[in-house]
Amino acid sequence: MSIIETIIKRAEENETNYFGHEIDMVPNVIYLALYAIIFGYLCLMMIKSRYWWFNISFFIGYGLEMLGFLGRTVAANGKETELALYAVQSFCTTVAPAFIMGGVYFLFGQLIFIHGKQYSLFRPMWYSYFFITTDVICILMQGSGGGISSSSGTLQKVGNVLMIAGVGAQVGFMTLFLILWTDFLFRAYFKYSSQEEQRSVLGKRSFVNFFKLLFNASSDVRSYKANHLDEHYDPDFYHIRHHSPLFGYFPLAMTVAVILIYIRCIYRVVEMSQGWNGYLMVHEVYLMVLDALMIVLAGIIFMAFHPYWIFGKENVLKAKDLKAKKGMAVNALEYKGLTERTSL
């Protein structure tokens, strides 16, 4: 039985709690407040920074999350019987992560440029174009599925299947992204391992060294990155890689944030597949932990690791400039000399 059919059946039986569970006011208010803080921060960044694609994607994504939990909070006042409130929270929280991932895909393409095209399997912008396109497809599938499922008869089932397929496709594309992201990091860390392993044990290609370099935890690792690996990276973007001490932790931050969103998407696929009477649907705690918490933590990570703080105040990585790659960065040696003279 589809979700919509079950709703209609419950309505006929005067069991009209569309959410499938009694909403606990306290955790929903807490999450609403957290989403409002993240959204407010993104509003300020929309004014302060020029990373338009990232800002707009996150602005929409966390704006939708905030609206979704606003609907849940209002419904917690004994209004679980209002279908409009359920529709708001269901649509907004289902579609929002796709917009958030759109911002992450944008950052992936920029990081490839910052390190060098030689560390990429494909042209850097192809990653952004491909994953952003798939993101739009997933959003359309989920949105249209939600609209179709409000119909009756066979269309209800088609709508539900389309929504599940949309979230499932998102999981599939995120899996591909994680594979390509890991491949990029391995190349960035070990492409010249035959040379570097003679200079440091960290140069040897291994999973142990990969995680040491990813976590960037020790002074030896940070020194190796700055004095050895950085020699192989694109000198035009030396100033960006050394703009902030947080840059060394940025790959880890992105990895953790994507895994959190990935967990959330897997949860939603399972939840929607179980249907209205499914175990996950009728137990609110899973929504709070495996959905809301994952997206909040990802948002907090990108509050600290917003490209404004990591790449610099000015967005020098615009598409037209990346194609021309002229007049936007200083040479690594010039930058080192400049910083040395400044420190004297």
TrEMBL record:
<keyword id="KW-0813">Transport</keyword>
<protein>
    <recommendedName>
        <fullName>Sphingoid long-chain base transporter RSB1</fullName>
    </recommendedName>
</protein>
<keyword id="KW-0812">Transmembrane</keyword>
<dbReference type="GO" id="GO:0005886">
    <property type="term" value="C:plasma membrane"/>
</dbReference>
<feature type="transmembrane region" description="Helical">
    <location>
        <begin position="129"/>
        <end position="149"/>
    </location>
</feature>
<comment type="similarity">
    <text>Belongs to the lipid-translocating exporter (LTE) (TC 9.A.26.1) family.</text>
</comment>
<dbReference type="InterPro" id="IPR007568">
    <property type="entry name" value="RTA1"/>
</dbReference>
<feature type="transmembrane region" description="Helical">
    <location>
        <begin position="285"/>
        <end position="311"/>
    </location>
</feature>
<feature type="transmembrane region" description="Helical">
    <location>
        <begin position="83"/>
        <end position="108"/>
    </location>
</feature>
<feature type="transmembrane region" description="Helical">
    <location>
        <begin position="161"/>
        <end position="181"/>
    </location>
</feature>
<dbReference type="GO" id="GO:0006869">
    <property type="term" value="P:lipid transport"/>
</dbReference>
<comment type="function">
    <text>Catalyzes the ATP-dependent translocation of sphingoid long-chain bases (LCBs) from the cytoplasmic site toward the extracytoplasmic side of the membrane (flip-flop). Involved in the establishment of the functional lipid asymmetry of the plasma membrane. Regulates intracellular levels of LCBs, sphingolipid precursors that are growth inhibitory at increased levels.</text>
</comment>
<keyword id="KW-0445">Lipid transport</keyword>
<feature type="transmembrane region" description="Helical">
    <location>
        <begin position="51"/>
        <end position="71"/>
    </location>
</feature>
<dbReference type="GO" id="GO:0000324">
    <property type="term" value="C:fungal-type vacuole"/>
</dbReference>
<feature type="transmembrane region" description="Helical">
    <location>
        <begin position="246"/>
        <end position="270"/>
    </location>
</feature>
<keyword id="KW-1133">Transmembrane helix</keyword>
<keyword id="KW-0472">Membrane</keyword>
<dbReference type="Pfam" id="PF04479">
    <property type="entry name" value="RTA1"/>
</dbReference>
<feature type="transmembrane region" description="Helical">
    <location>
        <begin position="25"/>
        <end position="44"/>
    </location>
</feature>
